[in-house]
Amino acid sequence: MALIKCSECGNMISDKSENCIYCGSPISISLKTLIPCPECGTLIEETAEKCTKCGFPFIPKKQLECPECGKEINEGVEECPECGFPFISSKEPIRCPECGKEISEQSKNCPECGYPLETNENQESLLINCKACGKAISKEAEICPHCGQKSDEKIEEEYSNNRIDVVVGFLQFAAGLVALYFMFKSCSN
């Protein structure tokens, strides 16, 4: 998953999202994809030759030729941007259900976040499908690493926190009114 900047509100969002999760604005296809620098983590354009902060050099993606129109394209694209010719990948990349990082099939733990990846019944019981994109994610994930959707638990927690804030605010307001009542009552006597 790469991050892009919403042209309406400026927040960083998943490039897989159809709409901004913060302001709801539709995502423009023309937005440049941002990726984190593997050295310092600064978000930079995917096409950059080196990191703008630390100068880390990027290895250019392998160029392939579209068999339909002959246009040079980057390895890993799903279809030719010129003619739309679909490329069939041998396998969907395996991603960590916790952080979304692409991982090797042989990995027992995610090299990025350390999440245990061994496939067994115990591990599978720790996974759920994201309601927005349907991909497997950790039950503990607050935000889907694939599409950026907040989990139901995270949304409920935020809603619950907002309700608590409203109740506390109301109680403070009521206490203030009671204090004013007694203050005016004592002044009139």
TrEMBL record:
<dbReference type="InterPro" id="IPR026870">
    <property type="entry name" value="Zinc_ribbon_dom"/>
</dbReference>
<keyword id="KW-0472">Membrane</keyword>
<dbReference type="Pfam" id="PF12773">
    <property type="entry name" value="DZR"/>
</dbReference>
<feature type="domain" description="Zinc-ribbon">
    <location>
        <begin position="66"/>
        <end position="86"/>
    </location>
</feature>
<keyword id="KW-0812">Transmembrane</keyword>
<dbReference type="Pfam" id="PF13240">
    <property type="entry name" value="Zn_Ribbon_1"/>
</dbReference>
<feature type="transmembrane region" description="Helical">
    <location>
        <begin position="166"/>
        <end position="184"/>
    </location>
</feature>
<protein>
    <recommendedName>
        <fullName>DZANK-type domain-containing protein</fullName>
    </recommendedName>
</protein>
<feature type="domain" description="DZANK-type">
    <location>
        <begin position="6"/>
        <end position="55"/>
    </location>
</feature>
<dbReference type="InterPro" id="IPR029037">
    <property type="entry name" value="DUF1407/YfgJ-like_sf"/>
</dbReference>
<keyword id="KW-1133">Transmembrane helix</keyword>
<dbReference type="InterPro" id="IPR025874">
    <property type="entry name" value="DZR"/>
</dbReference>
<feature type="domain" description="DZANK-type">
    <location>
        <begin position="96"/>
        <end position="148"/>
    </location>
</feature>
